[in-house]
């Protein structure tokens, strides 16, 4: 656990020195959502109806935009090789890096999402469900994305391959999360969708570090 928290502290300090990596995904998230009212026009009912999909697709794309920074800088400066050679379990170190990545890129999306949801006309109850889905879903995006990044970190132009790898795996999260917000708008029960997202998060936390660690070892060999 000491190694886990040491990796989290290290990556958070490094992220604070590279504020552009924090701001870019958040700015992309805000711009995409704010452009929709301009494109659709003054149609509050339409914006309210499509708001769950708008917010979640924007969050998914913003998460993908930030994925490359998860291991790239460590790969470039040789720190990733030291992590692979470390006597500590690589899966634990990987989980620490993923947590730090989510705190830097995913948590700001969760914080700013209620303001953007108000812009799209969502009610307070619906916004609370939206926050729950983001808190459960965005860590899953980081955990799944870490596997794709680990497989492509050694490639110079792995962005397209990374998108092809992770996008199909992101679809279930998008479906259940957006559907939960939509059902909340209609006043229908959403516990089934919330439970599915929670199950995905638990499975991703347990299973994702192992293939990520194995992929990193292959990429470094």
Summed up:
With 221 residues, the chain is mostly helical. The protein is built from 10 helices and no strands.
If you had to describe this structure to a student in words, what would you say it looks like?
The protein has one domain. The model has no long low-confidence stretch (mean pLDDT 87). Helices cover 86% and strands 0% of the residues. The protein starts with a helix and ends with a helix. With 221 residues, it is mainly alpha-helical. It has helices spanning 2-17, 19-40, 44-67, 72-77, 79-85, 90-119, 124-152, 159-185, 191-207, 209-220.
Q: Which strand-content bin applies to the residues?
A: under 5%
Helix fraction, binned, reads over 70%
Tell me the number of structural domains: 1
User: What's the overall geometry?
Assistant: elongated
Q: What is the alpha-carbon Rg in Å?
A: 18 Å
Overall pLDDT: 87
Terminal CA distance: 27 Å
Can you summarize the main beta sheet?
Answer: none
Number of strands: 0
Q: Give me the secondary-structure category.
A: mainly alpha
Poorly predicted segments: none
Q: Give the count of helical stretches.
A: 10
What string gives the helices and strands in order? HHHHHHHHHH
